[in-house]
Please model this.
Amino acid sequence: MRSHSFEFYNIALFAVILCRYFLVAGAAYWFFYSSFSQSFINRRLPHRSPSWPVIRHDITLSVLSAAVFAVAAAFILFSYQQGATCLYADPHKYGLWYLAVSYGAVLILQDAYFYFSHRGFHHPRLFPWLHQGHHRSRYPTPWTSFAFDPLEAVVQALFLVGVVFILPLHFITVIAVLTTMTVWAVLNHLGPDRLPTLFPHHWLGQWVIGPAHHSIHHLKYTVHYGLYFTFWDRLLGTQDPKYTQALSSFLPSPIDKA
Model:
């Protein structure tokens, strides 16, 4: 890898992260909120048209988050350049099997880190400073997927910084994790009415977080803190007991929307 200055990495990565956000979130919004999507929206579930002031707020927070993550990514690359990280470029160094194992390990670790930090953000003393901006979207859209409050973005970026100093990771693995995180975040913020409601009732859906699971969190702040898996919510009693029932039985009706 050719060496560059920290400033170069920072600017270049900010542009890459921002473009990734607008491409992925924009494409998802265009598809799931276009006139075409009206044909498969589940009208039995609470539905609300997107609020443009809230979307602008989400985009503003996302731009700030992109700046934070760009600094973290630039620090990682600059540190790799100095030989200070556990990142490696030769896929055969630990064997090809390790690529898959390390990918799964990072997702599991990130899920645990996200659950406990996210749950901490909801403490009454921390919420106004670290997480209130994200929850301005009670009915999230794909634009909400990267709308972290600046201090929350710092906390989440610290995981990525820390893991590359602890766990040997190939660059392909890091890219795969970042891609999974981006796509998963967008899907989880689609809203409960944009995808079939069969998912929570499927055996896999009971262990993997989807848009219905996370939409409940935006409406009921005291449940559903996970990122990828429902394991910690199920284990620590923060999963809504009605999640696997009909969603309309506990999501607020359109009349109750705030």
In short: Confidence is low (pLDDT under 50) at residues 253-258. The first strand starts at residue 87 and ends at 88.
